[in-house]
Amino acid sequence: MSIARPLIAASLLLVLIAAAWTWWAFPAKVDMADYVPADSIVYLEFNSVGDLIDAVEQSNAWQATTSITGYSSTKSNKALTFLTKAGIGPTDAVILSRAQVALVVVRWNTIEEDSTLRIKPDIALVVETHTSSWRTKATVTNALQRLAALAYGESRCNPTSAGTIECASSQDRKIVGAIDGTVVVIGNSSEAVQKVLEVRKGLRPSLRTDTELLRVRSSMAKANSVSFGYISQANSAKLFSWAAPLLMGKDPGDAQLESVLSSSANAILRGIAWTATPVGGRIQDRFQISCDPAVVAKLQPAFDPGRFDEQLFSLVPSSVQSLTVYRARQPAAAWTSLNNAVASKVGALPAVLFGTILKSGLMSYGISQPAELLETLEAPIVTFRPSDKTESSVLVARLKDKESFRKLMDQAFKATSGQIIEGLEREPAPEKEFTALFSDQYVIVGKTDGVKECLISLRSHAVLTAQTKTNLNPAELDNAAPILSYADDEVRLNTFLTTVLMLKQKSLSPTEEQTLQDKLKPFAFAITETSLNETGIERKTESSFGQFSTLMSLLQSSTSHATNNSKR
């Protein structure tokens, strides 16, 4: 008994010490919205880098290519993960297992250079390392140097008088880093880093003051979600006002036009949210575009699906790069509902502007009177890009009133350079910009180069029904979402993996590159379902690596340059 009591006491003491050490060593999760400015334009958070990496590494595409990339396809070692989360192990491994990350666009700049508009967002990456600064400094400095080299090529890194680290390239492009306690901030400008640091010092309000963010995150983010994104109502409207002029054929920068569009969009939109979740060896990205309740009610006809016509796929080439099926039961009513939804919330002038934006979507097919023309078509309507040889998109539909369609297209083609021909054996005149081709009770309409590319495949009977590239089963489309899209994801997958290999400082031989492409082909597609719910428009996309492949590709120097838009 005298021996047992000390042993029991010692055992209890060890348990208490172990519990205390576990409580102290394992950091509690924080809300990354507390770390970024309240007026951030775009906000993305990743609360477990380890979970994100696991989601990618357990995907079917990743596991199929490990023999080429040299990366492991097995799950992470639980014992090793436990130790690194407790702070035991190499610094980079400890940071990786503990880190929470937020990526924010803090400002959106347009700069005019040589009659070209350069779009340059100020971006900040905020990392809560849950690790002391004395331990992370060397690792962070090394990471900055590697990141600058990857994004901009050869760069030199030096400390600044403001206490930051600045890595600049020979083209005067830079990456700036700062360490504030356990937090690391990396930005593509000093201003982006400074804004985040001011939030840390209490000089700026944080995004966590946005109650809508808290509401939508609690409703959308699930236990197995590996990321969450948010754009506020005001910033959704701002982004729309910047992008909409491009759809209208105008350059951004018209302050008066953007003000009208922004205030109108603000009356319609309620914000945008995003989550990413691993599902069956792929990543599902879910986007919720919240709208005013009155707008949602008026959008119903656009999302009232009818039956799918399998014959349409016999007019889609097997080389198709992207494809969208619009299943609205009454195409003209769907179009009218879109216009009515906008008109119910904005004034006459904004309604006209929004109508112009909607019309621009069909102008690329040579259709100038969408409301009248859609009355002559039956559901569904399919649009697609025939091959990687053309950027032009083509529209295919069954004709309800062939003669009325012909008259409307005759009128449209008087204002543009267009032609109407009949039969798949006819050759479109290349000097005409648009072509409408009748094939029995169906029509193929679009830019002439797109229609010609389509005809090359149809004449050789290389049609979509002859293969399974899209993973779209025509027999199941009657029960699919009101709008269903397919996209060939091969380029994005290859870019993602080559960028990952660049981080590993590994290059592939031409033979290995071809083998990598071959192994990715079975997984190189993305399927998007668009539907209407009580909050607004919901889009769900399943792809091999989700939006992470897009984010990762931005690191490549070839894609990191600002987007150029030539002025008209």
Brief rundown of the structure:
The protein has helices at 4-25, 49-57, 60-64, 66-69, 78-85, 91-98, 133-152, 190-200, 211-220, 233-247, 255-268, 293-298, 331-343, 348-363, 370-374, 402-415, 448-459, 490-503, 510-520, 548-553; strands at 42-46, 100-113, 116-128, 155-159, 165-169, 174-180, 183-187, 227-231, 269-279, 282-291, 322-326, 377-385, 394-399, 418-422, 434-439, 442-447, 483-488, 525-532, 536-543, 563-566. It is α+β, with helices and mostly antiparallel strands.
**How far apart are the first and last residues' alpha carbons, in Å?**
94 Å
Whole-number radius of gyration?
A: 27 Å
The major sheet is characterized as: 20 strands, mixed
Overall domain count:
2
Shape: globular
- Fraction in beta strands: 25-35%
| Global structural class | alpha+beta
Tally of helical segments: 20
Proportion in helices? 25-40%
Look at the structure and give the mean pLDDT. 85
Number of strands: 20
The low-pLDDT segments are 557-568
